[in-house]
Amino acid sequence: MTRELAARLAHDVGKYVARIAKNAPADGPFPAALVPLLVEDLYASPGGGRPSARFAALAPPGELAAVREAFAAIDALEDAVRGGDPGACRRACALALEVEAALRASAREAG
C-alpha cells in the first residue's frame, strides 16, 4: 500500500469513525445523547456513504484484514447501536477505536 493511500485511509476513515468513540465514557450508562452521534460516525461519513464501504473501496484487497473484520462487526451491531443498546454501543466504540489504531499504524509503517 502506498504512503498516500495509507494516510488517506487513516484520515478519511479512521479519524471520522472514532470521533465519538474517543469521547464515550469507559463505564457507567452510555449517554443517550451520544447515540445519534455514534450512529453518524459508524454508519455515515462526511463525504456520504458508510465508513465500511469507504474503507472497502479504498483498501487494497487482502490487506488490513483486522480492519475488515472490525467493520463487519460494527455493521452487524447497527440495529442495536441505533436502538441505543449500551453493550452494543460500547462494543462498537471499542471496534471503532481498533479501526482507527490499525489505520494509523498502517500509515506510520507506510511512511
Helices and strands, with pairings:
Layout: H1 3-17, H2 19-23, H3 35-43, H4 51-58, H5 65-76, H6 78-82, H7 86-110
Helix pairs in contact: 1-4, 1-7, 4-5, 5-7
Fill in the keyword field for this structure.
71% helix, elongated, 111 residues, mainly alpha
What is the gist of this entry?
This protein has helices spanning 3-17, 19-23, 35-43, 51-58, 65-76, 78-82, 86-110.
One letter per element, helices H and strands E, the order comes to HHHHHHH
* Strand-pairing-aware structural class: mainly alpha
Count of domains: 1
Straight-line distance between termini: 10 Å
Question: What oligomeric state do these chains adopt?
Answer: single chain
Residue fraction in strands: under 5%
Overall outline = elongated
Number of helices: 7
Radius of gyration over alpha carbons? 13 Å
Task: Bin the helical content.
Answer: over 70%
Strand element count? 0
Model regions low in confidence, pLDDT < 50 over at least 5 residues: none
Mean of pLDDT: 93
- Quick one: biggest sheet? none
Kindly describe this structure:
This protein is an all-alpha fold and 111 residues long. Helix content is 71%, strand content 0%. It has seven helices and no strands.
